[in-house]
Structure prediction request, 199 residues.
Amino acid sequence: MTLKTSDFKIGTLGSHSALQIAHGARQEGFKSVIFCEKGRMKTYQSMAGGSKLTELKSFHDILKMEERLLSKRVILIPHGSWFNAMTLEELQRFKALYFGNKNILPWEADRNKQRKWLSRAGLTLPKIFKRPEDINTTVIVKFHGAKGGKGFFLARTPESFDKRISASHGKDFIIQQYIIGIPTLLLLPAYWRAGNYEL
Prediction:
């Protein structure tokens, strides 16, 4: 049997990258489906542009749809929220069609492995501070896994780091030199007003 583009759908979880993924799918001639958590459908109803929307109680419930996804030939596109919705082991066992190579998942889920990967590619990377006491410039504290930046914070001193990190006890993190760019300059005033920046 010869399969055509129209025989497949592109699917993803309804979070930060979903609208771009659905838009790209449509440009390539695919129908798309966005799986939204309960209470977040409204956002996508106004912007999804023809994508089918499917509501889930939680993103983790997509694991229960394995057979349905296979029968409908839905190709899932991964992004950061998949790592928050399920464990690495669950993602690796999930048999639904998947775009990409699952062998890179352990690298995607671990910031230290990601850094190793980028370093081997010859990229210039921000400095990593191994100890909070060494902070002597603006840093961003990032937690492992992908949360679209949720929980990340900026600090400039060991004291401001200590003040903010106490709310995240037990989570793995890295302390990375903060590089200011054009988007940052536009966003910083709102960031300060929200109380996320310690001087």
Residues 182-193 form the longest helix (12 residues). Residues 191-199 have pLDDT under 50 and may be disordered.
